[in-house]
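The material for today's practical consists of a large collection of protein records. An example says more than a description, so a record of this kind follows:
***
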Amino acid sequence: MTTKNRTAPPTVCCIVLAYNGIELTLECLATLRHQDYPHLHLLVVDNASNDGTAEVLRHQAPDVELLEAPENLGYAGGNNLGMRHALANGAELLFLINNDTRLDPHCVTALVEEIQKPPICGAVGPMVYTWDNWEIISSAGGRIDWNAADAVNVGAGEIDRGQYLPRSVDFVNGCGMMVSREAIAKVGLFDEAFFMYWEETDWCTRMRKAGLDVRFQPAAKMQHKAPLTWREQSPMTLYYMGRNRLFFFARHASGMQRIRALYGASRGLMHGILQNRLEGNLAASSAARRALVDGWLGRWGRRHFVFH
C-alpha cells in the first residue's frame, strides 16, 4: 500500500464500513471500482454483520481486503479498526465511506486534489446527495451552530444549482470523508466514547483546533441512503444523536457559550420527550429521555437498550 515514488499520486485506502446491507456494500464497491483515480486499495470493515456479509465478500469480491470486527464497534470503533490497519500498512490517504453510498467516478480524484492543496488540510468531504436524486443535496459541508447547540448539514433538501463552492467548513459528513496520515498523527483517531453520531464533528473540530483545515469540495460527488429529517430516524439513532450532542458541546464549548449550548441541547431533548409522547411515539420519547439522562450522567460508549 506504500507509495515508493513520492512524485507519484498517493495510494488511497478506501475503508468501507459495513453493518449488514450486503447488497448496498456490493453496489458501493462497484462504484469504487469505476473511479478514475488509479491508485486505490479497497478495504471493507465488517462490523459483525449477521447477514453473511463477510462470506459473500470472500466469494464475490476477492479483490477487496476484508477485516472482521469481533463485535459491532459502532462507526467510531469500526473505522478506527480499519484506519489502524491501513496506517500500519503505509497508507498516506484514507477515504472513510459508509456502505450505503454510491460514488461518482471522479469523486476520489477530486478529493485527492483538494486535500493536497495548501494550507495543510486534515480532512475533505464531497457533495453528498440523496439516494434517489443526484440533484437534491443531503450535505454541502457542515456548520456548527454554537448558540443553538446543533450541527447542520448545509444545503440539505436544496436543489444543487452550483450555489455551494469549495470552502473551509466546520465539519464534513462522516458518510464520506478523506483524511491524511498527518492529520491522524496530530489529533488521533475517532473518540470511541461516541460509538456513533457526532464523532466526525468532534474529529473535525479537533483538527481545526490543531491548526488543520477541513474542506468541502463539490466536484467530488456521492449519494447517501439516509433520511433528511429526525422524524425518519430510528429510536436508537435518536438516542445516540441526542446523547452525543450533549457530549460534544460539553467538551468543546466554554464559558457562557457552554451553558447556552447545554441548555439548548437539553431543552431540545425535553421537547422530544413530550412531543413524541403526545404523538404516540413512545419509543422515540423513551430514547430522548434516556439520551438526556445518560448525557448528563456521562454514560458514554455503546449502550444496550430496546426502546418501547
In short: The chain has a mean pLDDT of 94.
